[in-house]
User: Fold these one by one.
Assistant:
Number 1:
Amino acid sequence: MARCSCNNCGQHIEFDNSMVGSEVACPSCGMDTELFIPGGEAQPEIEAPTPPYQQVDPASAATTTDQLQSDGGMPATAEGQPMPQRPGKVLAISIMTLAGGIIAILGCGFILYITALSLETNIILFFLTIVLAIYSIILGILATIKGSLMLANKPGFLSVKTIAIMQIINLISCPGFVFNLPLGIITLVFLKDPEVKNYLRSKRL
């Protein structure tokens, strides 16, 4: 847009640059006046350049989406579908399994202490406590490994149900350490939850 004054009355008139040199009626005095640009010729309007459209490769866009899902705490499967979030009961099972393994190892130390005392009294009791100590050691190692793998969402070679049953049996091998009994029972109860079953099946835990 440009602006000039009427040649007759001096009224300011606004007009488009393309109308320079034309005569129009002044809106104030009604007289014909020539449109001009004071101080020079009209400058053409410069349009802002339109940014070029960037063509996006669909395969690249899909890869970026998968990366965003993984980086944002929403892991994706090979098919691009988000993996289910770990239920709180699964986390509790992992912790109880790991704790049960540590308790079994501590219980083994207690059994060995009883073994040392029984050596002087009864040879049969001595060998029996040795067997129970070996059981606690095996349970402690297996449960510790299984609990650690579950916390890391990695599959193991032994099912968590088997570990839970071994924890309950540990009450027989080490009556002084009854802590594994409730841990094993709670784990078996949690394993019946459909959400827990689906998650363990999807992660092959």
Note: Residues 88-118 form the longest helix (31 residues).
Number 2:
Amino acid sequence: MIDGLKLMFSGEELRTRLDEGIERHEEAAAHWTREAQRTKDDETDDHPLLPPHICHSEAVRHTWRATVLAFIRDHLDASEIYRMGAADPEFGELLPTRPESVEDDDDDDDGNNGESDRDDWCSGEVIADNEECRATRLDMSGLEIIKIERR
């Protein structure tokens, strides 16, 4: 008998999925690096200039995450089968990305009949707060969203 939900992955499948995650993080790090190098001439109403320290912080975070996933990948035996507990697939970013159109099941009990609550949407980790702006990393079902509020 197996206690709890266990997922089985071949070492080769794990490597492939980790490679995909590494690539996503490397692309995100490159994006944030480019974003930090933008100037006032690049700013538009639809794409405002972000404070460089926020962009740098995000680039460092994505670079670190790619490094973590590469470390895990490099220590797998492709010929083995790995049994994972509930937290392992999330930590290793092995689960498929949730489509944007799929709502988070956790929001169903809020009494809003499927309508999102602005306070819930805006909650997240504050990554910068100064006299210029406040930046918050929002948890939007795996999407990379940074909310910038200018003061």
Note: The chain has four helices and five strands.
Number 3:
Amino acid sequence: MCGLTRDSVPKPVAPASIGNEKRKRRYMPKRVDKNHKEIVTALRGHPGVTLFSTAALGKGIPDICIGYRSFNILCEIKGPKGRLNPVQTEWHLRWTGAPVVILRTVDDVAVLIETLDTYYKEMGRTIADALTEEEHDR
């Protein structure tokens, strides 16, 4: 036997939100901004863009991850006057990858795609292309 008895098993505890205890909220509720769908639709309308939403994760993690021309970009979607909450700010500051892009409008999407196209053209070839070439030459 494993040594457990009926009396040694912990009793279920009701979530804090049910009782009168007040708990400090560590992060904002998982919700999306009103322009989320519009911006996602605009991004998906660009050929070559892949995207998945991470908005449901909460905890300061950016709303979407975009793949385009070998670039992986994390983006936070905010309304015209929206600001990062403290948990989002902390997450962004601790992130050691490329800076998180904040998108507010469909025009921001166009600027992002144009910027990535420019970087792609200036690079001449991508790191992925170079690695594939090296593997092919072996």
Note: The longest strand covers residues 71-77.
